[in-house]
Design goal:
The protein has about 400 residues and is of the alpha+beta class. Helix content is about 35%, strand content about 20%. It is built from 10 helices and 15 strands. The strands form 5 sheets. The chain has a 5-stranded antiparallel beta sheet with strand order 1-15-6-12-10. A 4-stranded antiparallel beta sheet has the order 4-14-8-9. Strands 2-3 form a two-stranded antiparallel sheet. A hairpin with a 2-residue loop joins β8 and β9. α2 packs antiparallel against α9.
Length: about 400
């Protein structure tokens, strides 16, 4: 039966209790959400602050700082001096043990071109008037002291800046690896393609300016002259030849591997004609090309051109005393950059070619250290104080001049 008037039914009270319970649960959830958000924000702020409060960034890491005193500095000066001077002397000795002969042939006189009055013309003037003209010249020289060991033939250029930023970049390594012969890197411009859009092989300013004089050596004898056999291989770095340079697939000719290419603008022959007698030294794997493509660091430089064949009769142990002459097919122009060309005959030591700079630098640094050590020692003896006395100074230490 329904209850009396003013009394709440039992089921209504149960519902009210459930509503109150749900409200309390909702409030509890809201509190937990707010609490979790605050904790997340504090954790994020803590992590952010910890990045800027690390010991490394606040320079709180344990460190050691040397205290420079006369007892530590003076022995260092003398030790460096005593080590560097003998080392520099040894380097200079080995450098000067390298035998070398240089011959400048920039002003070489032609043997196949004459002036109107019958005098020989300078080859540089011949190729200046007609770059396609073949000019041959000869320069005599005498070897006054026998060259022992293996003898190498270099060519040298002066005032040629192979270290220019755009020049050094002007190449396409993918092309030189034989991977792509239809498109090349923009770094090769303006020596990438010809007027008809055909790709130069190889492209770029480095390859386009490749040294192309031909050098031959002859020994002068009573019965005539004998040409020395010069080896074309073994002059490039093995790593360059094996890793950085490779020919495209196919025969090395105009209808095979290089059918989509043309010779560079200033070349007189195609890349597949650099050494037609030796397929292993032709195309991109030609060692003259590989040597030239390794850019020099300074404007005056030399590059290995040939090795003298010591299997020849009379040249087994080096290059003997005698009269020789250099015959040059003079093609490479140097007037445009005010340069000079040289032929260099040289032996080597275990340190390489002739270079006195390293030995002189070591001796100079060693002498400076010894001199400074002596000066500082005199100053220390006359005016210095012991480090222990300086570290033990306190407020009770009496003043003295």
């Amino acid at each position: 039966m329904p209850g009396a008037e003013g009394e709440t039914p039992l089921h209504v009270k149960v519902i009210e209790r459930k509503v109150i319970l749900l409200e309390n649960q909702i409030q509890d959830l809201k509190y937990r959400l707010i609490s979790n958000e605050r904790k997340a924000a504090e954790e994020k702020r803590r992590k952010l602050d910890s990045k800027f409060k690390q010991k490394f960034k606040q320079q709180r890491l344990p460190a050691w700082q040397p205290i420079l005193t006369a007892d530590t500095v003076l022995p260092a000066f003398f030790l460096i001096g005593l080590l560097f001077v003998p080392l520099g002397a040894a380097l200079l000795f080995f450098s000067r043990s390298v035998q070398e002969l240089q011959l400048d042939y920039t002003e070489c006189l032609s043997i196949n071109h004459t002036l109107a009055n019958g005098d020989a013309r300078l080859c540089r003037d011949v190729i200046k008037d007609n770059p396609a003209e073949l000019c041959i010249c000869r320069e005599n020289f005498t070897v006054h002291e026998s060259f022992e060991k293996n003898v190498y033939l270099y060519y040298g250029l002066d005032n040629f800046y192979q270290n220019h930023r755009r020049y050094v970049k002007s190449r396409d390594d993918k092309q030189l690896l034989g991977r792509d012969d239809t498109t090349v890197s923009n770094d090769c411009n303006p020596f990438a393609t010809d007027s008809e859009g055909r790709v130069y092989a190889p492209c770029g300013a480095i390859a386009n300016s490749m040294f192309n004089d031909t050098l031959r050596l002859f020994e002068v004898q009573e019965s005539g002259s004998t040409e020395l056999n010069l080896l074309k291989t073994g002059i490039a770095w093995p790593s360059d030849r094996k890793i950085k340079f490779n020919n495209p697939p196919g025969p090395l000719n105009a209808s095979g591997a290089f059918k989509n290419n043309v010779k560079p603008l200033y070349w007189t022959k195609n890349v597949y004609d650099l050494d037609p007698d030796d397929p292993n030294n032709n195309g991109y794997k030609n060692e003259d090309l590989i040597v030239w493509m390794r850019s020099a660091a300074f404007p005056t430089f030399r590059k290995l051109y040939r090795r003298i064949d010591h299997n020849m009769t009379g040249f087994k142990f080096g290059l003997h005393i005698g009269t020789y002459y250099l015959e040059v097919e003079y093609r490479y122009p140097v007037d445009s950059f005010g340069g000079k060309k040289r032929m260099i005959l040289s032996t080597t030591s275990f340190l390489g070619g002739k270079n006195n700079f390293l030995g002189i630098a070591y001796i100079t640094v060693g002498c400076i250290c010894l001199l400074l050590g002596i000066i500082f020692l005199i100053i220390h003896i006359k005016f210095g104080k012991r480090a222990v006395d300086q570290l033990n100074i306190n407020q009770n230490t009496p003043y003295s001049d």
